[in-house]
Amino acid sequence: MVRYPLLIAGVAAERLAELRVARRNAAWSRARGGVEAGRRHYPLLVATHTGLLAGCLVETRAAHRPFVPALGWPMAAVVLGAQGLRWWCIRSLGPRWNTRVIVVPGLPLVARGPYRWLRHPNYVAVVAEGVALPLVHGAWVTAAAFTLVNAAALAVRVRAEDAALAEAKAARPASDGRRPPSADA
């Protein structure tokens, strides 16, 4: 599929758009007393996602992976669905969404959009995309490698995020009855 590099470029452009939104949202959160947690794992996440995009291109070219329509088209649909879920998460969290773990003390937990049903829906999008994007063009080694590295990175990320949310909740007076904000990125 000659268009595969264009798909990868489109996903890369989407990532850059996310980073612009994240930078703006980080400033919003910090202006309201937001505290960042888990800084040490952030470079691993960036490297993992960059490696996914590079691996997709390198493996398909170096290993001469063919486009198999019976696999490629359904996986392309999953990639598009993952993008839709990701942007639904971004809209649902509004200025609290970020690629970093930044918790603004005192804000209630977001319970709209996909957060009505899932605690970390953005990570569902990440996992789905990480498997599907390489498989659009048969890059199964990249899909497997990303899945393994991403599972380890997300285990660290979710622990950091949950700890930050628990800390924010513990710091809040017990009488207000609100839950801490979601920091899912």
From TrEMBL:
Q: Which InterPro entries match?
A: ICMT_MeTrfase
| Keywords assigned | Membrane, Transmembrane, Transmembrane helix
| Protein name per the record | Isoprenylcysteine carboxyl methyltransferase family protein
The highest taxon in the source lineage is Bacteria
Which terms in the GO cellular component ontology are assigned? membrane
Q: How does it sit in the membrane?
A: Multi-pass membrane protein
Biological source species: Streptomyces radicis
Instruction: Indicate yes or no for the key word Membrane.
Output: yes
Q: Where is the protein localized?
A: Membrane
Any one Gene Ontology molecular-function term assigned to this protein's record? protein C-terminal S-isoprenylcysteine carboxyl O-methyltransferase activity
Where does the record locate the signal sequence feature? none
Its primary localisation, in coarse terms, equals membrane
